[in-house]
């Protein structure tokens, strides 16, 4: 996949370039007819731009260190399609949205933050902040400046972890992905 250059003023900002690759994929996925097609479009760019293991560790929380390495690897492998299907499902309600990326990232800890304004089909805007690590990989996404993707994951993973431990979470990721990808295509108007 060709990399899209950052706009003038952000030229050379690798954090902005990472977010641009992801928002380009989101815009392409918006044109797809169903969840499965959107997830296929998003899958590769998400693997390239997101630090999936870091996001999963944040979602699992302190229990991560107690999970055996082979189970961690299985969880990471199941998490990638789960996250793509999650975003593909959310995009179903975002038809006509556009993404305006601030051309300059800001330092945050030992990483960066990139501000994006999403304008929906009706003209309403929402801020979305992408948090990137030192390697310019996305580790969290904040909607409206306060709703953390990692926090949302932690809430969603809490019950499967409590009920079935790491294997319960693995089952949850796989079943949730299957369910999201099986959603029917919207009916033509």
Automatic annotation (TrEMBL):
Organism superkingdom: Bacteria
Q: Which Pfam families match?
A: MlaC
Report the InterPro entries cross-referenced here: MlaC/ttg2D, Tgt2/MlaC_sf
The protein's name: Toluene tolerance protein
Q: What is the lineage of its organism?
A: Bacteria, Pseudomonadati, Pseudomonadota, Alphaproteobacteria, Hyphomicrobiales
């Amino acid at each position: 996949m060709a990399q899209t250059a950052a706009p003038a003023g952000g030229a050379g900002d690798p954090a902005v370039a990472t977010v641009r690759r992801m928002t380009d994929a989101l815009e392409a996925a918006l044109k797809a007819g169903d969840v499965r097609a959107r997830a296929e479009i998003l899958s590769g760019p998400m693997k390239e731009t997101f630090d999936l293991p870091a996001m999963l560790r944040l979602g699992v929380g302190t229990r991560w260190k107690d999970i055996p390495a082979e189970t961690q690897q299985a969880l990471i492998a199941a998490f990638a399609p789960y996250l793509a299907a999650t975003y593909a499902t959310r995009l179903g309600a975002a038809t006509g949205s556009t993404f305006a990326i601030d051309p300059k990232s800001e330092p945050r800890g030992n990483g960066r933050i990139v501000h994006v304004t999403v304008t929906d089909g009706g003209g309403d805007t929402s801020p979305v902040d992408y948090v990137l690590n030192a390697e310019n990989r996305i580790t969290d996404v904040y909607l409206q400046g306060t709703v953390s993707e990692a926090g949302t994951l932690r809430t969603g993973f809490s019950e499967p972890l409590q009920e079935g431990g790491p294997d319960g979470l693995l089952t949850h990721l796989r079943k949730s992905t299957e369910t999201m990808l099986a959603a029917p295509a919207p009916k033509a108007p």
